[in-house]
Amino acid sequence: MSKRQQSYSSDRNSRPTTRPSHGAVFPRPTHQREPFWIYGRHATLAALANPTRHCRRLLVTSDAAYVSEDTLVKIYNNCALYLPKIECVHISTIEHLLPGVIHQGMVTQVTPLESRSLNTLLKGTHDTALSTVIMLDQITDPRNVGAVMRSAAAFGAMAVVMQERRAPVETGALARAASGSLEKVPLARTTNLARTLETCKAAGFWTIGLEATAPRSLAQVEVADRIVLVLGSEGRGLRHSVRVHCDSLVCLPITSAVESLNVSNAAAVALYEVTRHRLTDSSRK
Description:
This protein is an alpha/beta fold. It has ten helices and eleven strands. It has two domains: 8-16 and 115-284, Alpha/beta knot (3-Layer(aba) Sandwich); 35-110, CATH 3.30.1330.30.
């Protein structure tokens, strides 16, 4: 195991921006309850199939209904009691409702998911030998968060953790980038990332921060069975208050052709390396 150190990462929107409601970044109220629209085939079907998600309306074009007919029938056969009536509409209806988005002829109006408690999630890992948590420090672009969640689902991470402030709430842009993973990977929010890292340590997790200037790469350090991967913004990296609470500081070796990786790319590479390391260890036993 390595000595206590620090972290890495990326996000191109380090400052608040103004966008349409379907792509708003921040700030927003911590306890978001306003309905919003999820768009895109994978994101919409995943929302419909999630029993904890309240879907209020479902708008589908005839072409999209035809392509997704089997999946829709299966979902409605299993969950018809809590799903909305399917509204078959002309594509112009959706484009007027959500101008400029790639919707693939399928959108659903939903209520945000209930906030997940990280403490509860950590308690649920007591009997799990291998666990990975992704922590994001000041990642403000919902598309980056969504892409990280997609990678988290692909590599079996148990949760993604963000701040309550200066972090995106659920939006259609986030859900579409997650490609259904918003419904599958718990998204936990916390008021203080530094304290949360200490909570994770108390639960038996080793905390690894990604930092572009770290002397060792992730491949060169021992990967514990239970880890937290901490990633910061592309421009600033991890804040000092978060960095000093990490057990290890590692980098992802890249060429001088680019200065850094986008946070979602960095998360995918790091998660792959953790998975590769664990599979290699498993084959040796």
